[in-house]
């Protein structure tokens, strides 16, 4: 399953956006209103839960300074990645696209597609406000 948000313009340089997201505790400010739990585990890993959903642990998997950050599930039960692509427009603006990719059976994919789409959409929307 692959989901992607539309590009969002952020009034920050690609370095500022990357540095903000590279500090995983900042993801708490991007979370939807229906977050029921957020816990920083270490500098590369955090746990969150949305109302009615199981807890998910995300950790940094890969990074390319100022252009890409890849987070992934820490558990093999639900293997997925959340990729943030950052494109510099100029020294004060950048465009950000979030993409979610995971391997799920058809039933699971059908159940989680809408909540995941809403989740990454909210992250993207909130990112444009940083």
UniProtKB/TrEMBL annotation:
This is SRPBCC family protein. It comes from Arenibacter troitsensis.
């Amino acid at each position: 399953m692959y989901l992607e948000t539309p590009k969002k313009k952020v009034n920050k340089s690609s370095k500022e956006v990357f540095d903000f997201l590279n500090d995983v505790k900042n993801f708490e400010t991007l979370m939807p209103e229906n977050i029921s739990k957020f816990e920083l585990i270490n500098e590369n890993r955090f746990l969150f839960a949305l109302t009615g959903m199981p807890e998910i642990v995300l950790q940094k998997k890969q990074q390319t300074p100022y252009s890409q950050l890849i987070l992934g599930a820490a558990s093999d039960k639900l293997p997925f990645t959340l990729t943030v692509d950052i494109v510099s427009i100029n020294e004060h603006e950048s465009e950000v696209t979030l993409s979610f990719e995971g391997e799920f059976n058809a039933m699971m994919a059908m159940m989680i597609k809408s909540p995941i789409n809403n989740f990454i959409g909210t992250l993207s929307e909130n990112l444009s406000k940083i």
